[in-house]
Amino acid sequence: MSQAISRFPLVTNMEQLPTDVRERILAVQEKAGFVPNVFLMLAHRPDEFRAFFAYHDALMERESDSLTKAEKEMIVVAVSADHGCLYCVVAHGAILRILAKDPMIADQIAVNYRTAPISERQRLMIDFALHLASHRGVLDDGWQAQLEKVGFTLSDVWDIGAIAALFGLSNRLVSMARTPPNAEFYLLGRVPRATAS
User: Fold this and answer.
1) What are the C-alpha distances in Å from 126 to residues 43, 68, 132, 180, 182?
2) pLDDT tens digit sequence for 4-57
3) Half-sphere exposure of 80 toward its Cβ, with a 13 Å CA cutoff?
4) Count of CB atoms situated within 10 Å of the CB of 23
5) DSSP-assigned letter for residue 65
6) What Cα–Cα distance (Å) separates residue 172 from each residue in 4, 42, 57, 149, 167?
C-alpha cells in the first residue's frame, strides 16, 4: 500500500502545471531518475514553488566563502533531525552521503552530530545552526568570535543561518503535508547506482 504524497491537492497531470514548473520537475526527474515528492507536494502552488526553489538554489548552489556543499547538507540534516522531519533527513541525507562520499555520515549526524566523525569546526557550525533554528538564538559577539576563530567569514555565518531558517520552513511544510521521502532516497549514496547496459 503506497503512502499519500500530501494531504493537500496534487497536480495529477503535469500538463496542467505552468511550463517553468513542469520543466523544473522534468529536469530533476531526468537527473535523479525519479521525481522527489516535495516537488509534487509544492507544485499545487506554483508561485510558492518558484519562490522556495529560487531561495533554495540561491543558498545551496552558490559558492560560499568557505562552506562546502557537503557542509551545507550537514546543516540541513542536523536541523531537520532536530525538527523531526523524516523527509528532509532522508532526502538531504542522501545528498550528503553522495557529496561526502561517505555512506554513514548522514545517519551519524542525524542521530547525534556531537559524536559524529566531523571536525570541531563543523560541530561548531551545527551548534550555531541549531542555536538559531531550535533555540531562537541570535548572532551575538560571542558566537561571532567563536565562528570567526575557526575560519568562518561573516558571509559564511549568514549562509549557516539562512540554511537553518530555510529548512525550518521546509521541515514544517513537509511535516504539515505529511509528505514521505521517496523510497529511492534511502539507498542513494549507500549502494552504487545501476549502470545502463
Assistant:
1) 31, 14, 10, 25, 26
2) 999 999 988 999 999 999 999 999 999 999 999 999 999 999 999 999 999 999
3) 29
4) 12
5) S
6) 17, 13, 19, 33, 8
3-state helix, strand and coil shares in percent for the chain, rounded to the nearest 5:
65, 0, 35
Q: Which amino acid, residue 123?
A: R
119-166 tens-digit pLDDT: 999 999 999 999 999 999 999 999 999 999 999 999 999 999 999 999
196 pLDDT band, cuts 50/70/90, is very low
Q: How many CA atoms lie within 13 A of 101 on its CB side?
A: 0
Rounded distance between C-alpha atoms, residue 4 and residue 10, angstroms: 10
Nearest to 192 by CA among 109, 103, 105: 103
The closest alpha carbon to 96, from 119, 72, 114, belongs to 72
C-alpha grid cell for residue 158? 549568514
Question: CA dist 197 to 32, 76, 130, 188, 194, Å?
Answer: 18, 35, 45, 20, 9
Compute the C-alpha angle 60/62/64, nearest 5°.
Answer: 95
The DSSP 8-state label assigned to residue 77 in this structure reads H
The 10s digit of each residue's pLDDT in 52-82 is 999 999 999 999 999 999 999 999 999 999 9
